[in-house]
Amino acid sequence: MLAGGVGAARLLRGLHSLLEPRQLTIIGNTGDDDTFFGLHVAPDLDTVVYTLAGRVAPQYGWGVRNDRFACLDALGRYYADTWFQLGDADLATHIFRTDALRHGQSLSAVTRAIAAAHGLKITLLPMSDEPVRTFIHVDGRGALPFQAYLVKGRGRGRVRKIEFRGARRASPAPGVLRAIRTADIVVLPPSNPLVSIGPILSLAGVRHALRTTRARIAAISPIVAGMAIKGPLHRMLRALGREVSPVGVAQLYKDFVDAFVIDRRDAQHAARIRALGMRVVVTETIMSTPAKSRALAAAVLQEVSA
Amino acid sequence: MLAGGVGAARLLRGLHSLLEPRQLTIIGNTGDDDTFFGLHVAPDLDTVVYTLAGRVAPQYGWGVRNDRFACLDALGRYYADTWFQLGDADLATHIFRTDALRHGQSLSAVTRAIAAAHGLKITLLPMSDEPVRTFIHVDGRGALPFQAYLVKGRGRGRVRKIEFRGARRASPAPGVLRAIRTADIVVLPPSNPLVSIGPILSLAGVRHALRTTRARIAAISPIVAGMAIKGPLHRMLRALGREVSPVGVAQLYKDFVDAFVIDRRDAQHAARIRALGMRVVVTETIMSTPAKSRALAAAVLQEVSA
Prior knowledge:
The structure is a homodimer.
Chain A: E1 2-3, H1 6-18, E2 25-28, E3 34-36, E4 39-41, H2 43-52, H3 70-75, H4 88-102, H5 107-117, E5 123-126, E6 133-138, E7 142-145, H6 146-152, E8 159-165, H7 176-182, E9 185-188, H8 198-201, H9 206-212, E10 216-220, E11 223-224, E12 227-228, H10 233-239, H11 246-253, E13 259-263, H12 270-274, E14 279-283, H13 290-305
Parallel strand pairs in A: 1-2, 2-5, 9-10, 10-13, 13-14
Antiparallel strand pairs in A: 3-4, 6-7, 6-8, 11-12
């Protein structure tokens, strides 16, 4: 699986309940990573870990369950900006990651250690060991780091361009291309194709590996009934002149996806997606409970295993 | 004031209630500093700040009042050693200090910022901007970093030697020697003379400045009735072949202290201390309440202002 944040983690909890952990390799977006208070925060990798470990805050889909914010409150004495919500237990992960990176460990090695510390037996790979940072160019406000755009700015403003700074110099992390080439199935979860999956696809060789792998590739639409399930994707698609529908998403993946999963509410789009050369699965896609995650994961596996 | 940890902070709360904050300059020991989880922790400086800001945990005399340990608990997933008690709000100070030092700020500048962030108008100087680390050489266990000796090892084992690693290369921080030379009064609180005041005295020029300043210098015995008020000082003195009494402490300071303050329970030692060339004040020295801190501070000021 290529993974963004919450949508990916919710599908993963379904796949994780159906497969052996060792069958699962997750390639996580690091374009959303940022440094707060000198600590390296990797929101998408952590959301995967916390979700699979059963420790995610259920009301948000990110962060640690029942976490408190005493440290962040106290950081407010020293810093003007404390808008990025880092809970006390969550901070331990960022402190450890920062410490290990400063000691010369790669992000791959640190991520492996974090997953293991949470008892996970899946393979979790950051997309790259080198820094790639997503910047959102917003009308009148210049290029904003992704978290500043999404969290501080609440995803407001007209998006002019999405930039993956550093992507041209960065290589996929060890194991990323091999995982894609040797997989039986590749899944693109209902994550934002522009800012969650996009940074992974921007790395040298990834898109080529997806086009040429023998794996069957399934993607799930993050647009349902004309809206993003979460986040500002519909506004981004519109601002970039793309169709705000599963078709608009399918077009972004048309060179490598075999099967495209859409919600029942979007059944009317099936024919246009088939015209892009994909099979179409119509099912329930909103993973509001673990049972729904499992049902969607089963539907995806059934389609691509067929 | 030269300052160690809790004893210094308790006397300071008394002085702080009697003097204008701008009259107070505190030179804090940094030999106890250590790095935990990649974060620079400066226990003595922080104890001064938290105490004067009214935020110290009253039951310990260090750390932040009502602090919780959710982050430290979570760090236990990633690290084997979590014996150094860092509370959630307290961690904010170490995160900020570490971040600012990494950005090239001096420890002096960071310490000034921390004190200001807590609304303090006193001058708090670290003894040096360069690293000096206290190591305790313990029979059969080699050289232990101070916190490992004191907190992890609970001050057990026979002390062979106390080493201030880095002290020969380190200079006093800007303002330290000038503060001593231009003060009206210098106070040595009832801190451990070997490991709290000792590192400050070990820096080039500090002892000379104390010997030659026009200030009157008062010291308060941290040994009362044959025991250290707090910590392993009595065991250290004994192991190093020194007398475990106010006299043993006074001997360490005899080249520069004018007035030595001892507890009523130690009145019998007064004559031997006078024989070292000091005046002696006999009073209540256990600062178990703010009122007692204030009374002791008043007694010290009265003696050296006379």
